[in-house]
Amino acid sequence: MVSDLGFQFFHPIEVRYRDVDAQRHVNSATYFTYMEQARAKYLQALGLWSGEDFEAIGIILAEQSCTYRKAFRYGQVVEVGVRVSRLGHKSFEVSYSLREQASGEEYARGRTVLVAYDYRRGQSVPIPEAWRQILARHEGLVPGDPANRKEADDDED
Amino acid sequence: MVSDLGFQFFHPIEVRYRDVDAQRHVNSATYFTYMEQARAKYLQALGLWSGEDFEAIGIILAEQSCTYRKAFRYGQVVEVGVRVSRLGHKSFEVSYSLREQASGEEYARGRTVLVAYDYRRGQSVPIPEAWRQILARHEGLVPGDPANRKEADDDED
Amino acid sequence: MVSDLGFQFFHPIEVRYRDVDAQRHVNSATYFTYMEQARAKYLQALGLWSGEDFEAIGIILAEQSCTYRKAFRYGQVVEVGVRVSRLGHKSFEVSYSLREQASGEEYARGRTVLVAYDYRRGQSVPIPEAWRQILARHEGLVPGDPANRKEADDDED
Amino acid sequence: MVSDLGFQFFHPIEVRYRDVDAQRHVNSATYFTYMEQARAKYLQALGLWSGEDFEAIGIILAEQSCTYRKAFRYGQVVEVGVRVSRLGHKSFEVSYSLREQASGEEYARGRTVLVAYDYRRGQSVPIPEAWRQILARHEGLVPGDPANRKEADDDED
Q: Structure pTM?
C-alpha cells in the first residue's frame, strides 16, 4: 500500500526569524517554501536536477495543499519528509511530512501535483522514461500499477 | 447553488519583483500570500478585524490549497476574489479566485479552511454568532443549511 | 544642490500582512524589497527596462543602505520616492524616500549603488550613453559635473 | 584595533530556492534576512535573548547596510560571521561577514546600528549594564574606550 510507505528522504530546514509572522508562529505560506526547498533537494539527491539550470526543470506545479496540525515556531528545525506518492503518465504527486526535528512530531502534511512540461513547445508531455524509472525505483512504485494511486488519477493515461 | 455564487469582494495586488523566482514567474507559495492579504482585507471590509490587534484574530488556518492554471508574472496586477463558501459550526471555508486584472482571466483558484479558536484556552470554539451573521448576510448563506456546503462538513455540528 | 532636489517619481506599495514580522511592524529587510520594486518601476517609467527580459538589466547592486525613523505597519501604503542622486562613469547611486502615504511623513531613507555590468564578459562597464542621457535629463543632472556628487565618487572616472 | 578583530561567532544558513530571484542569484534584500537570522542566533548564544519573547527584545534597528562583492546562489551555504564592532551609550553596531561556506570566500559585508529602546515608554534608553558587560566581554571591547569606535559615535554619550 502506497499510503503505508514511509519517507526515505528527509531534509532539515532551520526556521528563520523572517519565517514568523505577526501571529508569532511560522506563516502558513512558508510551509510551501519548506516543501519547495525539500523537493528541490530530493530531486537533486535522485540525480533528476543539477541545482543549476533553472530552465531544465521540465515540471510545473499544477496543484498543492497543506494540512496544519500545529504551528512551527522560531527556534525549531523542520524535518521535511519527501516522497513521490503517485506516478501517472504526465503527472506525479509528491507528498510531504513536516516534522519538528527535536520531538519527531508531525506538525503538517503537504502534497503537490507536478506535471511534466515542455517549455519550448508550451505544453504538458509524458514524464520522461528516465525520470519514471528513477522515481519508481527510489520509491518502490510500479509505474502504471493502480496500487500507486491514492486517489483517482487525473491523467489521460 | 453556492458554487454558482459570484465573488462580491475583490482586492488588487501588484506583483512585486521579489514575488518572482528563478523560473521567472510568481513563486507558487506566493499565491498563498496573495490569498492571505486579500482575506485580511475582506475581514476588515466586513468589520470582522480591525487590522491592528493580531491577538484578536481568533481563527486558525487548518488547511489550504491552490490550483494553478497559468503563472502570474512581474508587471501584472492580481485581482483576488474572496468569499466564504461554507459556514460550519466551528469552521468556515474561504474560496479565492486569482485573476489577472488587465484581461480578467483566472490564473488560479484557492481555498482555505479556518477554525474559530480561543487562544487563551488553546482550543477550537464555535464561530462567534456575530461573525456568523455578518458572513452569512454578506455571502447570502443560510447558516446550517446543507446547501451551503460544497463538500462534506468536517465539523461536529 | 543635489541634496535639495525633490523626488519626481513615486511608487505606492501596499504593506502586506506577510511583510510584518514577529515585532508586528514591517520587517527591516522588506524596506529593501520596497526600494527594489519602486526602482524597477522607475526604470520602466524612464524606458530603461521593459519589465520582461531579466537578462537585459545590465546593472548589479554593489551596495545598499537604509536609515529607519519610524516603522511601517500593516494597513499602511508606502509611497516610495526614487531618484538618481549621482551619476558616475561606471556606477550610479539611487536614493529613496519611504513615506507613509496618508500622512506624507517620511519613515525611512535608502540608497543603492548600482554598477553597469556586462554579464557576458563578466565585468563592469561604462554606463551606456543612452542611459546616462535619460537619467541625466530626467533628474536634471549634469553628467560628470562634481555638483552631482553628494560624496566621494568611487568610480575610476 | 577593532577593525582587526576576527569574528568569533558564525551561523550557517542554507540558501533556499525561494531566496533566489529572477536574476537567478540570491535577492539583495535577502542578505539582510541572513544577517537578521545570524544576529538572533548570536544574541541567543550570548544569553541576551531567549528566542521566545518577541516583546523582550528591547532593541530597534536604526540603520543597516550591505556591500556586495559576489552573488550567493542556490546550492550554497552562507556562513555568517557576527560581532559587535562598536558599543556606544544608547546604541551599538553589529558587523557581519557573509562567506560561502565551501570556499570560505567572503561574498558580502554588512552592518547594522541597533538602539536600546523602551517599548512601554516609546523612547531610546541606555544599553542595559548587563548587556554591555556581556557584549564587551564576548568581543573583547572596552566600553567607552574610543578604540571601540570605527567611526564617529552618533550617541549622546
A: 0.91
